[in-house]
Amino acid sequence: MASPTHQLSTRELEALSSKAITAKDTAYCPYSKFRVGACVLTQSGEYFLGANVENASYPVGTCAERVAFGNAVVAGHRDFKAIAVATDIKPAASPCGMCRQFMSEFTSPSFPVFMYDGEGNHTLTTMGKLLPHSFGPGDFTH
Ligand SMILES: [Zn+2]
């Protein structure tokens, strides 16, 4: 099977990774102590950050990926180039099922997802690999 590819320049990838890693510092995770940072790059070249925001009522908390996409979407963006997600563990963590569905709304199967471990090393995958046979906007016929 072919390895995932991406269209990012070296400069874009460096910016995306450093912003996602730095975004871990803004996580609100007093319960899990599990910091997650995310950064999404728009097709127009803008970066939007996210971090996990927990809640005393555990299920109410939200993930870094959804915060990053939400920030970008409310700023008017709908077209995205890539996302990076950073945690402190090794190997790198991948987005949860809820985030996979959330991200699939705005991405194609080839959309690159860079997952960074605590040492700054990354694994590259795609939305299609994370969420095959997904239900999305294209499934509505009305
Ligand atoms: Zn998630």
TrEMBL record:
Binding residue positions for substrate: N52, V53, E54, N55, A56, S57, Y58
Annotated Gene3D superfamilies: Cytidine Deaminase, domain 2 (3.40.140.10)
GO annotation (BP), single: nucleobase-containing small molecule metabolic process
Residues given in the record as Zn(2+) binding sites: C63, C96, C99
Domain CMP/dCMP-type deaminase: 11-138
UniProt catalytic activity: cytidine + H2O + H(+) = uridine + NH4(+); 2'-deoxycytidine + H2O + H(+) = 2'-deoxyuridine + NH4(+)
The protein, known as: Cytidine deaminase
CDD domains: cytidine_deaminase
Family named by the database record: Belongs to the cytidine and deoxycytidylate deaminase family.
Gene Ontology MF: a single term: cytidine deaminase activity
UniProt KW Lipid biosynthesis keyword: no
EC number: 3.5.4.5
EC class: hydrolase
Gene Ontology cellular-component annotations: cytosol
Keyword terms: Hydrolase, Metal-binding, Zinc
Cofactor requirements of the protein: Zn(2+)
Keyword field contains Metal-binding: yes
Protein role: This enzyme scavenges exogenous and endogenous cytidine and 2'-deoxycytidine for UMP synthesis.
Active site residues according to the UniProt entry: E65 (proton donor)
